[in-house]
Amino acid sequence: QVQLVESGGGLVQPGGSLSLSCAASGSNIFSSNAMGWYRQAPGMQRELVADITSGGNTNYADFVKGRFTISRDNAKNTVYLQMNSLNAEDTAVYYCNFRRLLTRINYWGQGTQVTVSS
After folding, report:
1. Cα–Cα distance between 17 and 86 in angstroms, integer?
2. What's the average model confidence in pLDDT over 73-96?
3. What DSSP string describes 72-94?
4. Residue 78's closest CA among 109, 48, 101, 103?
5. What's the rounded Cα separation, in Å, for the pair 45 and 33?
6. Closest CA to 97 of 84, 72, 79, 114
7. Are 105 and 99 in contact (CB under 8 A)?
8. Residue 12 confidence (pLDDT)
9. For residue 29, which of 95, 71, 78 has the smallest C-alpha distance?
10. Rounded CA gap, 22 and 16, in Å?
């Protein structure tokens, strides 16, 4: 099992910035994996925002390219998401994800609300 603890999120004005972090703990978390962030707006399906493998390869959704940056600290088993130039369409619950690359088993955080509003 893998436990994910998220922090960050909140309310920000359009054009503002927020950062999210997610720390993983549990069994066998040093095996090949990817950590990332998904989001789900009301009435919408959960969608990938960005992820990063334990080797450092990143993957971004088109709608965040150039605005969001994902990074990770393998020593701390923590993934970060820096979100800049936020707009109302970025309002959603953001979920941390840990995915084992060999077995493709996924683990999820509890979610953190990001609201972009004036």
Report:
1. 6
2. 96
3. EETTTTEEEEEE-S--GGG-EEE
4. 109
5. 23
6. 79
7. yes
8. 97
9. 78
10. 21
Residue in this structure with the two tokens 């509890």, named with its chain if needed: 110
Share of the chain above pLDDT 70, in %: 100
Distance, CA of 82 to CA of 19 (rounded, Å)? 4
Structure tokens at 74: 């393998």
Which residues pair with residue 71 across a beta bridge?
80
pLDDT at 103 over 80: yes
Tens-digit pLDDT profile for residues 18-35: 999 999 998 777 778 999
Say whether 63 sits in a helix, a strand or coil. Answer: helix
Phi, psi of 90 (to 5 degrees): -85, -5
